[in-house]
Design brief:
Keywords: Isomerase, RNA-binding
Distance between the termini: 53 Å
Structural class: alpha+beta
GO molecular function: RNA binding; rRNA pseudouridine synthase activity
Protein name: Pseudouridine synthase
CATH class of the largest domain: Alpha Beta
Number of helices: 6
Strand content: 25-35%
InterPro entries: PsdUridine_synth_cat_dom_sf, PsdUridine_synth_RluA-like_CS, PsdUridine_synth_RluC/D, PsdUridine_synth_RsuA/RluA, RluA_PseudoU_synthase, S4_RNA-bd, S4_RNA-bd_sf
Mean pLDDT: 92
CATH superfamily of the largest domain: Pseudouridine synthase
Family: Belongs to the pseudouridine synthase RluA family.
Largest sheet: 9 strands, mixed
Radius of gyration: 21 Å
Order of helices and strands: EHHEEEEEHEHEEEEEEHEEH
Helix content: 10-25%
Low-confidence stretches: none
């Protein structure tokens, strides 16, 4: 174990009884699944003094110790990695993220992310975000989601944009192809929480409760053909998998999104979700800025295959 490490001691309260120990630790310390796996594999997690396995269910009063090694967090620049810039100025950079590319590294030395390509072109972005791994990115998109992202080139700008996201003053629009019955337009006001048995997904929390996060989406159908509908979704909150979980919850899962029971689409190696536009107040000029990302070719091909026509 790394000599430079922090030992955390957690005590299981009554309301956590029966939770998996890895989920308990992840919630308490804000650790990723990949990080948790490494800690369990290294024997860095002990319950009442004994090495624990991640599937263990915790009991009231148990003392859990977690030794977390410190890691270098800076992003490795990748000058040869592709980077599509939609708009930039002295303060902000708007990027067009392709599907299949993570937003930023989770592990030291990890490459192949948007942040790696970004800091290679704009080294100042590395110091803009509080977490160096983010490379100045002000938010994240799921790996298989394409579309517009925004990064900051100064700490002041990053802080302002992050506060805008947190204050629900960033206008976020997504395009999704779904199947199933769906009204022409509507709102989905449904809290979400991590699924207790499936940490990779979220589930509706109709009555709120522990772990539930407020989530609000508005949608309108742009085009229909048979069972398929192209939908624009505007979200004011930013819960994990919000668009995916909300559409699935109303019986219209996203095409290709098998995690949420979406219909498979032959030849499409991703789900059909695209971050179409971002609108915000510029942190320096204070003027409104809106940036759009064109629909990528593989998604346009799916629309053509299903005889769906949309402009933009």
């Amino acid at each position: 174990m790394n000599a430079s490490a922090t030992t955390h001691t957690l005590v299981v309260e009554q309301d956590k009884v029966g939770q998996r120990v890895d989920l308990f630790i992840g919630e308490a310390l804000g650790l990723s699944r990949a990080k948790l796996k490494k800690l369990f594999d290294a024997g860095a997690v002990k319950v009442d003094g004994r090495a624990a396995k991640k599937g263990l269910l915790v009991a009231a009063g148990q003392r859990i110790s977690v030794v977390v090694p410190e890691e270098r967090r800076e992003v490795v620049p990748e000058p040869d990695a592709p980077l599509a810039v939609l708009r930039e100025d002295d303060t902000l950079v708007f990027l067009d993220k392709p599907a299949g590319t993570p937003s930023h590294p989770l592990q030291p030395g990890e490459t192949g992310t948007v942040a790696n390509a970004l800091v290679a072109r704009h080294p100042e972005c590395a110091g803009a975000s509080e977490d160096e791994r983010e490379g100045g990115l002000c938010h994240r998109l799921d790996i298989e989601t394409s579309g517009v992202m925004v990064a900051a080139r100064t700490r002041e700008a990053w802080t302002a944009v992050r506060e805008a996201f947190g204050g629900r003053s960033v206008d976020k629009h997504y395009w999704a192809l779904v199947t199933g019955p769906l009204a022409d337009e509507g709102e989905i006001d449904l809290p979400l929480r991590h699924h207790p048995r499936h940490p990779d997904r979220v589930e509706p929390a109709v009555e709120g409760g522990e772990g539930a996060r407020e989530a609000h989406s508005e949608f309108r159908v742009l085009a229909r053909e048979g069972e398929y509908s192209l939908v624009e979704v505007r979200i004011s909150t930013g819960v994990l998998h919000q668009v995916r979980a909300h559409l699935a919850a109303v019986g219209a899962p996203i095409v290709g999104d098998t995690l949420y029971e979406g219909r498979e689409e032959p030849g499409l190696g991703r789900f059909f979700l695209h971050a179409r536009a971002l609108g915000l107040t510029h942190p320096v000029t204070k003027k409104p800025v809106r940036v759009e990302s064109p629909l990528p070719p593989e998604l346009r091909a799916v629309l053509e295959r299903h005889a769906l026509t949309v402009t933009g």
